[in-house]
Design goal:
114 residues, mainly alpha, 4 helices, 78% helix, 0% strand, elongated
């Protein structure tokens, strides 16, 4: 996972490149879209071994699901930390960072239980 300074720099770069840096809804949508794309690429990459018959299918079935879940949680945590910083929270503070971890865990659990 990226450190807080990298995530803050990413959000600040996004804010500086935006036409209206005070439009939190548009900036939030751009952050969500960026992390959604990253998660989709990671999901596709974890499914690639399934293209190989036999052993590749077994690897994709067992290992692919675990790697995909891990990467999805990573992207969720980073996205929530970026959104938290965008909305004025100090993600360098350990308590606020733990809140983001809990939110990502609940979101991943909810998605997995569907």
């Amino acid at each position: 996972m990226d450190d807080c300074d990298s995530l803050i720099a990413r959000v600040e770069t996004l804010k500086s490149s935006a036409v209206d840096s005070t439009d939190l809804e548009t900036l939030s949508a751009r952050i969500i879209a960026e992390y959604s794309t990253r998660a989709a690429i990671a999901g596709g990459a974890t499914a690639l071994p399934g293209l190989l018959p036999g052993l590749g299918s077994a690897v994709a079935l067992v290992g692919g699901a675990l790697v995909d879940m891990t990467l999805a949680l990573k992207h969720d945590v980073e996205m929530i930390l970026c959104l938290s910083h965008l909305h004025g929270f100090d993600i360098r503070d350990e308590r606020e960072r733990w809140l983001a971890y809990v939110m990502a865990g609940v979101r991943t659990h909810a998605a997995g239980s569907r």
